User: Which sequence fits this backbone?
């Protein structure tokens, strides 16, 4: 069973050991664990569905108005979502949930919902960390259109390396269906376990190995989108110069243009060899120089992930195995990587000869920056736990600490100032509440032009909802403002939703916002899909 | 001086030798060379400009109503353009040409033109082969906005590998300005000599080495677009998930959304080594299998260009050097590449070690299909003449033959049927006029998912304009219909313009067309930029 107020399966428990706890206490003070609300208490707070019995009987697809279904469909994984669920401060929830079990049911469902004056919000795996799912407060009832049953592999063209899926398929299910035929997609965001294909497309998702497999923009080859009043079919083509590329209008549309029901994706053969190799470099500056050189040499690595000194330290502290880590650090110090060292995880994927060639080409670029390889042991551990790290949020909560992450991308000259500004903004925001903030950063997606910058903020939850919410809002606002001030995008891989809505205009400009709004109005003149996403005026208010 | 009714500089003369002439006569019959109209005769046919003296004096940028300026700005390089110019059957031309010499002049010029009720068509290097520039026939005077003076390098960020240019810069000038700083772009469409950066963006251009450097979609990092009533600034970002990517709305907008005045592009260091290697394979089937395997192995080659048997034969026949070619063919026949052999030109670009590694990885895939390498001699010749081949159109015209090319892209299972259907459609269309057609094809851009398919059609011009125009229209319609029937895009690299307008709907669908139209109306409610491009109802009529 999936947790209703945290990440992942209830049967999976992440823990932090005494050393890690001591490290956090030293950094932040003792954790303050408030009493979580029970599911029953949270459900008791839900308003009744505003759908009438006639509507429930007239819908072309069965609708659920069960409180738990409505609760689960209305929340993602933003820290704001967590706070509302953990404290039982529910706020707006949808009025009903429809879970079609055939893609053909989506068209009549939308037509019916339009006639009924509902707002429809498509929901895949409910892993949004930016408030995509939060229903708008307003007069019109809200129907969540759950894609969870639409998960079939529809066709596979081995010659073109294309697979067509129903868009509700979740990451592990998608990969399992492909692996059964000897294929893979290779799209691994950290939310992989629960994230859906349609959600990846609607939010311009990026996976950990996008350097090889491509961001979802490169993987999405075409598909079908049910618009409020018509159907958009985008054929698969390897490339086209026939005017605007409509794939790109669907990518990042965040449920506002239509419901993605089917998607063709570009698949790959399972690679012959894959090595994840951990390198250490003596300093942030040299680490950044190394990844920049690697990216600009275009060697074809599948992953480059550079932790700054604080994240490196935190990773080693939270890993457990204090004895082994101490030996590792002694070895690294002897080789020039001591205080201030940074961890770089590299992925080499492909044919065996290709992997060897890449490693040979990468090595001198790393050595030139004082890099020390520690081989594949740490890499194998990282790969084995790549989707487990996110469970740490549960363990930290239970120790009294909240975790939020903020991410952006910018050109190279802005990367280090961006990292510093984001961490500083987070610490300052919490200082305004008399609290400390443990902030650390990694570069998760490195490009020839620049890099993503991904910062994590750990702080004490606070004694009550109002206090915790205020801490989170201060942090989110301060870091978002730092991001746009330093010239970054408000999101490299999470999307806009409600949490980032006020900062969209900084990137798009007034003209860009007007064009986006014009396109949405053309597709959806009646506002059937008007969840508030992609609308700069829609910031999430305290419930 | 640039030719007014053909390709390129007047001082450059391509020729075909007796052997080539004999080959064409055998294939098509003796060429029929009509009398070309003189420039003076063509200019005499131009209607007077409809702009008033008051308008000419009131414009914020000097306007030219000189007949030759108006003529040159109103034509691209489509065979339809050629026929109209060569026969002096001019048809619609613009009323005036503005050539701003500062990007800041574009905004007031557009504002003024809007107030005057003009139609504005931006023009870069006038190399369109699909009728982008043909002015619409209508009541409103047409102003061509020539970007030719806007050619400066504005800034260069070595760290992010970004260069910002005024968008009117032409290919050779752009490369020269970058080379002076040790950089390059690497975007080499065959029209490189005259094509402009803004034109590449507006038409989704693809260069010969796009497999390494990327299509223009990947090279265009941001910029400034003057919309009819406002300015769109797109910041450079390595990647973004903040809703729709507005770069993609500008790409392929064909002058209908706004005027691209500045563009930042992703540049590269000049590579250490570049080899173009000619391989021969025994048959089309084995050649296609080889390029598909190479593309799907993702080795990072910069170019894969596979000629079918007829194009291979034609290339060898038109190359001159009959003696050397005969020796080459004897050698190839001994190695298993005889009748039906196909020529594959491969580009290996990068660091010296990287190039060696790529070649070692590519070789077994080529050998597996019976490939025979002939080394770098033919490749060096190809590279040295890569922008000279297009001059052959002049020589063929002077021998009495017209040349048109049509191109598409499709998924792998459709590639061979597409090639056969396109060639068959071309031959059938000319047979309807009692003429033969020499049709041949190459794959110029090969992707893991599929390939572009680029066919050339050579046929006798015909004795007069009406006859020649009818042959061209039959060919164009038949091949376009074959392309959409076989599931290809109406253009992989040339765009839509007027010549492909009727076939846009096959790819975009009614819903897609409605969205495109809605976006254009949002950007340009008054139709200031309504050249007729991207409008499916706009096919070019006989003048």
Assistant:
């Amino acid at each position: 069973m999936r947790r209703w107020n945290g990440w992942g399966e209830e049967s999976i428990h992440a823990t932090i050991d005494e050393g890690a706890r001591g490290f956090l206490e030293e950094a932040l003070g003792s954790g303050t664990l408030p009493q979580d609300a029970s599911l029953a208490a949270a459900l008791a707070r839900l308003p009744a569905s505003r759908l009438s019995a006639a509507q429930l009987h007239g819908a072309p697809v069965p609708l659920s108005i069960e409180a738990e279904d409505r609760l689960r469909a209305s929340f993602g994984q933003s820290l704001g979502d967590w706070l509302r669920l953990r404290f039982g401060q529910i706020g707006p929830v949808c009025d009903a949930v429809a879970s079609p079990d055939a893609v053909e049911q989506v068209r009549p469902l939308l037509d019916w919902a339009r006639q009924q004056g509902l707002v429809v919000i498509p929901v895949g795996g409910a892993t949004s960390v930016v408030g995509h799912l939060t229903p708008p407060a307003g007069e019109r009832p809200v129907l969540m259109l759950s894609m969870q049953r639409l998960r079939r592999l529809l066709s596979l063209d081995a010659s073109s390396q294309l697979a067509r899926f129903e868009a509700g398929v979740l990451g592990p299910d998608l990969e399992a269906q492909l692996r059964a035929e000897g294929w893979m997609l290779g799209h691994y965001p950290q939310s992989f376990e629960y994230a859906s294909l349609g959600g990846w497309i609607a939010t311009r998702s990026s996976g950990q190995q996008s350097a090889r497999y491509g961001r979802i923009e490169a993987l999405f080859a075409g598909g079908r989108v049910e618009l409020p009043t018509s159907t958009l079919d985008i054929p698969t083509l390897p490339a086209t110069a026939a005017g605007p590329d409509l794939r790109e209008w669907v990518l990042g549309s965040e449920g506002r243009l239509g419901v993605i029901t089917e998607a063709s994706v570009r698949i790959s053969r399972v690679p012959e060899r894959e090595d994840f190799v951990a390198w250490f470099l003596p300093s942030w500056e040299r680490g950044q120089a190394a990844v920049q050189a690697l990216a600009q040499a275009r060697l074809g690595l599948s992953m480059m992930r550079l932790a700054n000194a604080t994240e490196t330290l935190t990773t080693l502290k939270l890993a457990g195995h204090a004895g082994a880590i101490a030996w590792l650090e002694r070895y690294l110090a002897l080789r020039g990587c001591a205080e201030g060292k940074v961890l770089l995880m590299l992925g080499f994927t492909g044919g065996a000869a290709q992997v060897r060639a890449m490693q040979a080409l990468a090595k001198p670029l790393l050595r030139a920056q004082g890099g020390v390889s520690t081989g594949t042991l740490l890499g194998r551990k990282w790969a084995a736990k790549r989707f487990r790290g996110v469970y740490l949020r549960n363990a930290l909560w239970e120790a009294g600490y909240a975790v939020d992450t903020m991410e952006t991308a910018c050109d190279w000259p802005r990367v280090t100032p961006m990292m510093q500004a984001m961490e500083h903004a987070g610490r300052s925001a919490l200082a305004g509440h008399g609290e400390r903030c443990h902030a650390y950063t990694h570069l998760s997606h490195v490009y020839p032009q620049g890099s993503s910058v991904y910062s994590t903020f750990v702080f004490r939850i606070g004694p009550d909802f109002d206090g915790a919410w205020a801490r989170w809002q201060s942090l989110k606002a301060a870091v978002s403002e730092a991001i746009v001030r330093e010239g970054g995008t408000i999101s490299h891989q999470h999307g806009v939703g409600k949490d980032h809505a006020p900062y969209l205009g900084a990137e798009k400009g007034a003209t860009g916002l007007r064009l986006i709004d014009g396109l949405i109005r053309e597709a959806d003149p009646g506002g059937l899909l008007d969840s508030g996403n992609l609308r700069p005026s829609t910031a999430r208010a305290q419930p």
